[in-house]
Each structure stands twice: as structure tokens, then as C-alpha cells.
């Protein structure tokens, strides 16, 4: 069964009540059900040797400015525990025993909750270990810090309705604190009654259960088998069997009902939380939407001193017609229109933008001027969007005279097959610019050029690389296809860090497959998951991530793996070397081997 949190509060309205409670919790009097061999622990107030009454009096004196009323609650006793399932999960019948680690967790968590909840108003807390189940008695002096008075009502509620609400909130708070221990809150609003300690002792001791065992003593000459049959056929034994069977059935039903009610309560609380979150989110969106709406032009006209006459706003020589967020002045000397509160203020007051903002702030406050400014900005933005076309990407100017130098760099320095490089050049995917950079053309999937990646090839220190100005990194990529039908659907995509890496990986595959790639494969340069074309790649049956075997490569592959469930990783065998370094190294060994064979033939 699920372990439940237990919390009860009792009023102590006189110092006599406080002293009587202390006698029980501090074991100053004989307690019939307490085990004298076990030691209780004072969790709070252990170093204070004064009586509980003296401690409460001193706190009231130090924290209040008024004498307590005669009917005031001087102190509250809080009972804290958990159902036995928590303390002895393996055997509930072993009263007076507990799992030591669980007991310590319960004690520490409850002590922390008392201190955080009540601070120095919690004057004492006793952990009882000498009864059937560990529990805590804590004493709280209900001082209101603001009024400097005792106020049980403020802390625990005055009326019945307030008391239920405060108690429910208190039980919620305690259950949240115990939740990490696997202890849950009971069902809210439960009508279960808690039996008082004295009533419990009276019920246990007044009517002890007994069986008239002498009735089943063996009769003279009666065998053991005959005695057994007589006992089994005894009507009272049969009744007890039926009662025990009914009791077991009722216990099972109660367990099921309790589990069901707890599950229902948890679901209800979860739904309440979701509803509260959605209501809060809805309020935020409404507030944001309201902030996006301009000030009503009728309100602005009225604040400007204009009067509504026959559906138009007149005054100071203006005759203004308002249609939603638009206005038009029909006065002979004006005759112009506009849109928004700021334009209207500038028009009527014959002022500039800054002066209009200052006037709106004075008339409508900070929120009002923000709404007007946002609406003005949105209107201006929409006008620009509809009147100004987006500038198109300008490719770097090609210098055909320098292509041979760039091609030489790609083949000799980078190990690319000359016919492969030439094919990409003729296709218009690579060319040289005026600075002898290799220009890798970036396109969207409609074959529209929206960017370019540049790689320096001039001189020995040719480390320059980067995107050409105006490149749309989220809508253009360097890519090319190999294998399959020329116009066939892409069956496989290989993602690489850069254009050079994509060319190198494709070259290694061509060499491995003897120049033939079976599937229609796209080799795509992606250097950041932000630029990943997720929608397109989701339609490709096989996606492979051929990134470097380093921290960046692993992190990028992990991120892309969350975006594309069908993506797999191609791991480089050479740690610390990218695909181009592996390609160049492979070509070097092949040349060395070929040179060695030629020497032998000679």
C-alpha cells in the first residue's frame, strides 16, 4: 500500500493545557502504551532545560506587544507522522519496529519543514520512538509578525471554512516536503475521523478478546481426530471462520478503494495544475495580444480635445473620420490620412515623433504609450515588408583565369580526383573568385543559389574560410549527388562538416566501391544543427552523419539524432583526423606503394 503523510493540529488555550501536553510528550507521567526501553529524541529545543510553559511565555513576551486575550490560543500542538507502510514496509504487523534509514529520513525532513515553515515560532519538537509507529509532537506559538499579536486564526484559520482551507494547505505543504521519501498526501476532503489517544487505549483495554478454550478440551476417551472434527463442526467456530473471511474481504476492498481514491486524487490534482497553468498561459497571451493592439483612436481624439459630432471628431479646425486604426482629416486645410495613435497625435498637435510619445505617456501612462509604440512599429514594419523587396544574394564574382590554381589546390593539396573536381566545376557548383578562393555554391532544394562558402587556396598559409556576405545559412546548402538515376529520388543522405569534407568522404566511397555508388546519394555540408533541413531529410530513407571523431562531432551527431530519428553515425576509424586528412594519407601510401613496385621492376 502507498504510505500517506499524517498531520493534525490541536489548540492549547491555557498554560494548564500546555503543561498537561508536555507531561505526555516529554514522558513526565506514566504512559501505558510506551516502551520504557526505547529513548525518544528532542529535535528542536534540546538545549533548553526550561519547561514548555516557560518557553512559550518567554516567546509571547518577546514577540508581542499586547497581553493575550483570555480566549486566545497560546500554543498549537502539531502531530506529524506517516502511515506504517513507510516505516515497516516488509511487515506491518511488527509494531514498534522500523527501518532505521527511513526513520532518519522522516525525522530530518520533518524537522527541516518545521524550521522552514515556522522558524523560531516552533519552540519544541519531540520525536517519539517508544510507541508503535515513529511520530513527532511539535509546539508552535501562533504569533503574527505584522500585528505583534497571537493569532491562531491567521496561522490555522478561524471559521470552519477557513480552518479546512488552512489545514488543507498545511497538509499540502507537508506532503510536498515528504514526497521525495515516497510518502503521498491523503485524499483531500476525506471525512475520516481520527480517534483520540485516550479513546484508543480505552477501546483496547476495556474488552480484551478471549476464546473459551475450555469448551474444546478433549472429552474422556476422545481421540485427536474426533476432537478436530468436533471443533470444525462447532457452530461458533464456523461463525468465526465466516467473520474472518468477511473481514479479509472487507480489508481487500478497503485497500482497493484507498488505492483507487489516491490515484483519482493524484489525477485530480494533476488536472488542477494543468488547468491553472493553461489559465495562466491564456492570461499571458491575452495580455500580450492586448499590448499588440493600438490605443483606440476615439479615446486618443477625446484626450486631444476633439468632440464627436455626427460620427466625426471636430475641433481646432479638424474634421477627422476614424475607421478602426485609420483616420482621415476632411478639413479643407488638412485633408490627409494616417494610421495609429502616434500619427494622430502628431497630426492634431502638429508635433514630432518624440513629442507625440511624451504626450501619450502623460495622457495614457506607460502601458498606453507602449501599446501605441508597438502598433506604430508593426505598421511601419508591414509597410516596409510590402514595399521593399528582400535583397537577393549576390554571388562572388567569378574569375575564370584563376580556376586552374584553385583546381590544382583541390587535387594536389586536398587529394580530389581531377575528373571529379572538373565535373563539379562544369556543373557550376565550384569556381574561383578574384581572390583565388574556392567558391562552393550553396543552394536550396529548388536549385536556387542563396549563399556561398569560401575556402582560401592562395599561398602556403591559406587557412581562410567562411561564408560570403548575404548567405542564407538556413535556406541554402552545398550539396551534390552521386549514384542511382540522375533525376531519381534521393535514397541516402550523408552529412559532413564542410564542403571539403563532403568531397573527401564521397571520394573515399568512390574508391571503396570502385567508382560506383549504387544508391542515389546526396552529400550535404552541415556545420550546425541550426541549419539542418529537417523536413527534407525526414523523407530520406537513410541518413548518415559523417562528422569528425572528436567532441564537436559527437555533440553535433547527438543533437541531430534527436531531430532525425532515422539518422545513424558513420564513425571515423582514425581518431583526431578528418575525412580529408584520411584521404590524403591514403593517397600518400598508395603512391609510396606504387613507387616501390616501380623500383623493383627496374
From TrEMBL:
Residues 408-485 form the DUF3991 domain. Pfam families: DUF3991 (PF13154), Mob_Pre (PF01076). It comes from the Bacteria. Transmembrane segments: none annotated. SUPFAM superfamilies: Zinc beta-ribbon (SSF57783). Belongs to the plasmid mobilization pre family. This is Plasmid recombination protein.
